[in-house]
Amino acid sequence: MCEYTFSEIKPYQKRANRQMDALLEKEGIRRDANLDYSCGLFDDDMNLVATGSCFKNTLRCFAVDSSHQGEGLLNQIITHLIEHQFEIGNRSLFLYTKCSSAKFFGDVGFYEIARVPDRVVFMENRRNGFADYLTELAKSRTEGKTSAAVVMNANPFTNGHRYLLEQAAKENDTVHVFVVSEDVSLVPFRVRYDLVQKGSADLGNLIYHPSGSYIISNATFPSYFLKDSDTVIESHARLDIQVFARIAQALGVTRRYVGEEPFSHVTSLYNRVMKEELPASGIAVREIPRLEKNGSAVSASQIRLAIKEGRTRDIRGLVPETTYRYFTSPEAAPVIDAIRAEQDVIHY
């Protein structure tokens, strides 16, 4: 049996990256666009025989060359990635795998959260991680009242987002507002969460939650921010909806509110799948027409574009006053710089 060498595969290492792409393709796996750490096992001739990667606290893009399977190389890759995650402070880890591989990952310490039959299984490394999350959420349950939920990224929080919350607040006793926790947006989570709270505090019947690693994050929906095939988008949407149905049950939520999506094909498809799937779990889906201003829908993309082009004053009237005050304050300077440095701000 050959001796293999472990090595990190860095973005500038062209040969190693070509080998990684070729190995993934050979094993029928598409390279994920969101990767922040990759590693590989190389033979004596520096040929890549096994690889795996991470993005944030998720493990992804595993492959072992078919001629080297059965040598325990995948176990070594997983062990290395877990050690890497622990070194950078991530204890709660997630992964996706084909249904046929779920048992293997179960044997190395991962537990199933949800699955789409014949498509994908979502797993984590804590036996009671999701159960503990649901138990904590259930403390916010309001018995004997109508409860709804809204999930938003709010990048940043606009009058369109507020309008959606207003409609939900009018029609329900309690509205649980989940703000996507993953920091993959130009406006950081800390800022987004604060602006959502400040911009809707007067509504009075909202309960705010960070989404954690379970609701429309790069853990539960890694394709959400990517232009991907409809099959992949739909598979992850169905997976995410399964997770949300259990969250709704813990909170006593019977309605989910979403905004119409005229711009994003990904979100539009997600909404369609949601309307097909959630009613079977006793959750009605209310799709609210987008708020319009001057004949066009108010969107976070147009706010980011105005900021990028130095037209921050133009966003007044399109965002709550608290959002406008933030973007005209010195505190927003790093966020404004990041938006202006981004080549394309019209995205998901």
What's the gist of this structure?
This protein has 348 residues and is α/β, with parallel strands linked by helices.
Describe the structure.
- The protein is an alpha/beta fold and 348 residues long.
- It folds into 3 domains: 1-91, Aminopeptidase (3-Layer(aba) Sandwich); 92-127, no CATH class; 140-341, HUPs (Rossmann fold).
- Helix content is 37%, strand content 20%.
- A 7-stranded mixed sheet has the order 1-2-3-4-5-7-6, with helices on both faces.
- The radius of gyration is 22 Å and the shape is globular.
- The mean pLDDT is 91.
Going across the major beta sheet, what is the strand order?
Answer: 1-2-3-4-5-7-6
**Beta-strand content bin:** 15-25%
Average of per-residue pLDDT values: 91
Element string (H = helix, E = strand):
EHEEEHEHEEHEHEHEHEHEEEHHH
User: Roughly how many Å apart are the termini?
Assistant: 47 Å
Notable traits:
348 residues; alpha/beta; Aminopeptidase; Rossmann fold; 3 domains; seven-stranded mixed β-sheet; five-stranded parallel β-sheet; 37% helix; globular
